[in-house]
Every structure is written in C-alpha cells, then in structure tokens.
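#structure-requests
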Amino acid sequence: MPTSNLNIRKLRRSPARNAMFNTRWKTNWLARVLTPQGPLACIIEDISAGGAKLRIGNVPLQPSEVSLVIVDVAAIAGRIAWYRGGRIGLALVDDQPQVMELVIKAAKANHWQAEGLPGRKMVRNNGSSDPILPSVLDHKE
C-alpha cells in the first residue's frame, strides 16, 4: 500500500525533548513514599517520566500502589516495580504534570544541553544534583 494513502501524521515533539523525558536523571532529593505498610522516608536517586529509583533502606516491600510525596509538589501516583538492596523501582502513572516538572528540574541540575538538532548530545554531570526539600519529613498532607 502506498504511504500517501495512509493517515500518518508526524509527531511535533522534538527528539531532544523526548530524550530528556526518557532519560533517568540523577537526583539526591528527600521524599516520602506512602505504602500500604505506612509512610517511609526515602531519597530519590534518579527520575524519568516513567519511573524513579528510591533508596529506602532495608525495608522489603512488595509490589503495590504507592504515592511519592515531595514538599511543594502534588503527590505522585506510582507502583513499586522491584526491590533490591535497599532500593525500589517506582513505575509512575502516566500524565502527571508534576512529574514532567521534576524531570525538567533534574535535567537542568544535571546540565542537560540539547536543542533538538540532529547529532546533538545530551551532557550530564555525574555528580549529585542539588539536594532539595530538606524539610520533607515535616510535611503534612
């Protein structure tokens, strides 16, 4: 079938923007994860539009629905995907604007530089990004 007869439309999103949201950006942010077993303090070690890696210590958790709570950010819905060595993988629910804002913040903190030009590379700083929200454990819902 000729492609001219297909109803195909090019995406208008820049490749660099998609790359930014699909990249796991290093972070060092304090947060809480609200689990069925109760709230746990955690450190967000990396984040992307689809998930995050959280350091929670030696508290084994089973896959379940949870909320990630960061001060001054709406609660983020997710599901525990895995647990290994004091860390959990959190699969984030789609279409949460606050997640996109956090990914942009993490990308900027990691010195992301891309302008959507072909052949342009993302530049990341492998050091930890700025710690944010030190009063997260004092936050009340």
